[in-house]
Every structure is written in C-alpha cells, then in structure tokens.
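Async update (no meeting this week)

Hi team, since we skipped the sync, here's where things stand on the single-chain job. The sequence we agreed to prioritize is pasted below, unchanged from the tracker. I ran it this morning and attached the output directly underneath so nobody has to dig for it. Comments welcome in thread, and please keep replies under the output.
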Amino acid sequence: MSTEATGRRLNEQEKRKFDFGSWTIIYLTAALFLFLSATRSTFLGFNNIHSIFFDVSVDFFAIIGFTFLIIMGELDMSVGSMFCFGGTMMGIFCNTYKLQAAPAILLAMVIAGVIGLVSGFLITRFRLNSMMVTIGVMLAVKGYNWMMITKMTGRQLPRDSRNFVMNKIGGISWVIILMLITAVILEFLLIKSRYFKQMYYVGHNMDTTVLYGIKADRLKMVCFMVSAMLSTFGGALMTCRVKAPNVTVGSDLEVTMITAAVIGGASIFGGKGSMIKSMLGLAFIYILRNGMTAYRIDSYVQQIVLGIILILAIIIDIRISAKKV
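Output:
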C-alpha cells in the first residue's frame, strides 16, 4: 500500500473516532430538556423557559471572548469580575452622571476594552501565563467593584435603565434574539473566515504560526480585549435586570465558562471550540440548575454536581487529547 493511500486510510479512521464535543452536548441538552418536560409540569411554562434562556443569553456574551481564547490555548479568569464591572459602571454612569443605559454600557465596554488590552499585552509581550495574569486582573477588578458598589448600597438604577432589557420582539427578549443571531454569525465566521480560522492554527501549534504569517500575539490581544468588553456588556444587561449593582453578579462565572466551553467540545489545550456548542453548554448548565431547583435540591449540592461535571469533562478532554498525540 502506498504512503498516500495509508495516509488517506488513517484520516478516514480519525474521522470515525468518537469526538466528545461533536454531538454529545446536543444529546445531553435534548435528553435533559425532555426529562424535565416529562417530570416537572411547570418546566415547559413560557416564563420558565424564557427565564432560562435570558440567563443563558447574558452569560453568552461573556463566553464569546472566552471561547476565542480557549481555542487559542489561553484562559481568561477575569470574566466574572469584568461581568460585575459592567454593573459597577452602570451604577456610576447612570446614577452619578445621569447617562442613559445605552451610552453607559458603551462607555463601560470601552474602559473594559482597555483593561483587556493591557492584560493581552502583558501576556503576549512578556510570555506570561494567561491564567495567572487574568487571576491578578480578577482580584484587582473585584476589589474595585466591592469598593464602588459598597458606596452605592441601596441605590437602584433609574427606571429607563431598569427597563432597558425588558423590551421584547414577538414576546421574546431582544437579548435572547441577539444571542441567537450572534451565535450563528460567529459560528459561520469560525468555519468560513480565514481570519477567524487563525485561532485554531494558533491553538494547534503556536510555533508554526510564523510560517503561515499569522500575527498570533496581535490576535490574542484583540481577543482578550473582546472578552473583557463583552463580559462587561453581559454584566451590564444582568444588572439592568436585577435593578441595581450587586457584588454577587458574575460570581464564579469563570467556572461556568470553563464548564460550558469544555462540555461543548472545546479543549483546555487549545485548537478546538465552537460558538454554538459553547452556547449549548451554557444552556445545559442552566437547564440542569433549573431542574435541580425544581426538585428542591440544595444549592450547595448543585455546586457539587457542577464541579463533578467539570472534572469529568476535563478528564475526557485530557484522554482524547492524549490519544491524538
């Protein structure tokens, strides 16, 4: 058998191998949805489903940049703090400077973009570990959030800001619709766009990116900036919903992001990831939480369950990655 024929055969065998992220998240989410629909009479209520997917939609904006980064083998552990930062800045801009919701959110995103850009610069310029740097950013931003929100205790956002996320199109929140449109567009770009495909090349082998003329450091800096900006956007929307800045907004969001991305098929080693599957990963987590709440399972037990899911997903990811080496 020729070398070329052998190569084709190996490629065909590789394609037939089970890929954890290809279909599993779709099956898991559908099975969980059907189970809860059959066992909990209130699960399929419009308000319940709408509430689940609204929560998914605001977190989805935080997972966009996170997914880009994990594809490139990087982690952004500051997403939760930046999420809360969106609410902090909403409180400052809307209550102190009397801005409307839209300009307040845009200004918050600009400031967040600068923070993300600085993080990306430090990581790429000095070859620092992204997890360690962003943990530092997480702590610094969290401290700022606590300091500012404590001063705003008891102060709600103005009525127009609180109503910003209440607008609906055909009875469905515009935030959910924006999530679905964004997910489809970004998934298409990840598959078809040469620029977006570069993320996979960077994640597969950083050393070979130079040969293809990919400016990996610039790409990473942009993605760290996008991650910070969109996390802030999602946090601002959530703060509009809860009516006031709150230090618990975005709490433990980093763990949720990692869990959703990995059970959606992304790899902590880089080179894999999908925007729609990350969205489905978030949907699975929120449907699971909703179901456990419906069954009156204690919140602490819920945390244990989600922790076990993350550990199992990472173990499977490690085993699959080891087989491909």
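Quick observations from my side:
The CA atoms of residues 301 and 310 lie 14 Å apart.
The longest strand covers residues 168-169.
Reply here if anything looks off.
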